[in-house]
Amino acid sequence: MVCYVTERKSLDSAEPAREVLARIRIAIEAGTDWVQIREKDLPGRELLALVREAVGATKSAVRVIVNDRLDVALAAGAAGVHLGGESLPAAEVVRWCRNGNAPAGFMVGVSCHSAGAVREAEAARASYIFFGPIFATPSKAAFGAPQGTVRLAEVCRSVRIPVIAIGGVNKTNGAECLRAGAAGVAAIRMFQQAPDTETLSEKVASLHRAGRS
Length: 213
Fold this sequence. Notes:
The protein has helices spanning about 15-30, 45-60, 70-75, 90-100, 115-125, 150-160, 170-180, 190, 195-210; strands spanning about 1-5, 35, 65, 80-85, 105-110, 130, 165, 185. It has one domain (about 1-210): TIM Barrel. It starts with a strand and ends with a helix. The radius of gyration is 16 Å and the shape is globular. The chain has about 210 residues and is of the alpha/beta class. Helix 7 (about 170-180) links the parallel strand 7 and strand 8 (about 185).
């Protein structure tokens, strides 16, 4: 599984929200499995519009996940919500969703940066976790030193829910994460710095092949 995590502020564009949508379309064409819309500072109306356009662009072939905003995810028909350290407690969100308030199959993911957080997410019955940063990356510097693939492998063995590796992931080291037991990889720069669909398609296809080997 390969996931594009959006970050419009790192895009060199006069209209970053429109550029994010363009990048989402490129990611879909390149064979990406999930798109995680990580635009937490966008006003609700703008975020809802962006997510709705992203969901419409996927034609249900790609799962769209929304960071933090459960209300926006549900209103836009997204496939799930992703929770961070400052989000609502995962156990409460999962309980609310499973109590008939969200569509069947609606996912609740959690970002984790320690073994304790991983165990808590599994106990909360999260659908999956993002674990990282695995490698050095500016976007995850605030979460401490890179965890590395040895630590990633330990985490993957310790839980039964899918573990998605994030943080400095690219075509080459993403394959290392998959060999370590990760169910998938997530990245920002690999998608946003790709010059065209053909280049990105080759990277995504390479990671898919690594996941099957």
